[in-house]
Write a structure and sequence with these properties.
Elements lengths: L1 E7 L5 H14 L3 E7 L4 H7 L8 E5 L6 H11 L4 E5 L3 E2 L5 H7 L6 E3 L2 E2 L11 H11 L3 H6 L9 E5 H7 L11 H11 L4 E3 L4 E3 L5 H20 L7 H8 L1 H10 L2 H11 L6 H17 L2
Parallel strand pairs: 1-2, 1-4, 2-3, 6-9, 7-10
Antiparallel strand pairs: 4-8, 5-10, 6-8
Helix pairs in contact: 9-13, 11-13, 12-13
Length: 294
């Protein structure tokens, strides 16, 4: 009935796998949990090597890193059941009803999206505060909010899809760099008129990154966005839409903004009171530079 598919990269998978295993058993369904390690450090492989404590759990280490798009396609090819539940490895659940909530929503659509939340309390370590603040204020949306634009801002961290539907489109394996493979996947769902339902069944994003790591990944995502659009993919990410609407003004401003301003923005983002508005400005500046240099 249900294949639970989790790509792993440098994360201790024991809590999530044990939780999902017990939840699935409680629902008395046919299921499997497939975890593929995509080039983790050896210490994480050692931690996870005993995950297969049941014949319903498959753990395998891949010889080469496949990347975020291809590994999800690989997971789907290994799945034997008609419903695929894709989850990120750095995931937790608010309660023990996570799988139950999905099973009760199966008839609603071909794709069911549960959403994402963060811990209510901010991290004690200031290095991780900005990621927590950004995620809590920008990524957390309830089902009603997501349903207003059902295909927009699609995220791969927590969604259920019919295998027959997934096989029609899959993730674009030409995307090997970080960023926006999920945005493009959402656009393809819309093109094919695949029905999508949003429910309040969030997973908790536990894998916070330091401010420097988060900013670096944001810049990688912008680089990839510019490359994808230069190659005709027409990825309609929110930041690119905003940039396109005000391109002339932004490019003029970028020419006169000294590097000192960018350094001051970065200093703010690493502080105890980071501004999301300044982060947006920083990304627009970076996008302008990236497009000019492409």
């Amino acid at each position: 009935m249900l294949s639970i598919l989790i790509p792993i990269f440098n994360y201790d998978m024991r809590p999530i796998v044990e939780d999902l295993f017990h939840q699935a058993n409680d629902q008395n369904i046919e299921f499997e949990i497939i975890c593929l390690d995509d080039g983790s450090e050896m210490r994480y492989k050692k931690i996870n090597e005993h995950l297969s404590f049941s014949d319903k759990i498959i753990y395998e280490e891949l010889a080469l890193n496949q990347g975020r798009a291809k590994i999800r396609n690989t997971l789907a090819t290994r799945a034997k059941f008609p419903w695929l539940l894709f989850l990120d490895c750095d995931t937790g659940f608010p309660d023990g009803n996570f799988l139950k909530n999905y099973l009760e929503a199966l008839e609603r659509a071909d794709v069911i999206v549960g959403g994402r939340i963060y811990t209510q309390e901010p991290p004690e370590d200031l290095d991780f505060y900005f990621h927590w603040k950004y995620g809590s204020q920008r990524e957390v949306k309830n089902a009603k909010q997501r349903s207003a634009y059902p295909y927009q801002g699609f995220m791969t961290n927590n969604f259920l899809i019919k295998k027959s539907v997934f096989n029609l489109l899959q993730f674009d394996c030409n995307i090997t760099q970080y960023g926006h493979e999920d945005t493009l996947f959402g656009q393809e769902l819309k093109k094919l008129n695949v029905s999508i339902g949003h429910i309040d069944n969030p997973s908790i994003h536990l894998g916070l990154e330091t401010t420097e790591e988060f900013i670096a990944k944001s810049k990688k995502a912008i680089d990839n966005l510019v490359t994808l659009n230069a190659n005709g993919k027409n990825v309609r990410a929110k930041i690119y839409t905003r940039y396109s609407e005000h391109k002339n003004i932004i490019t003029k401003i970028v020419k006169i903004i000294p590097n000192k301003i960018e350094r001051l923005i970065l200093k703010n983002l690493k502080s105890s009171r980071p501004s999301l508005f300044l982060f947006d400005v920083y990304r627009l500046i970076y996008l302008a530079h990236a497009e000019q240099n492409s």
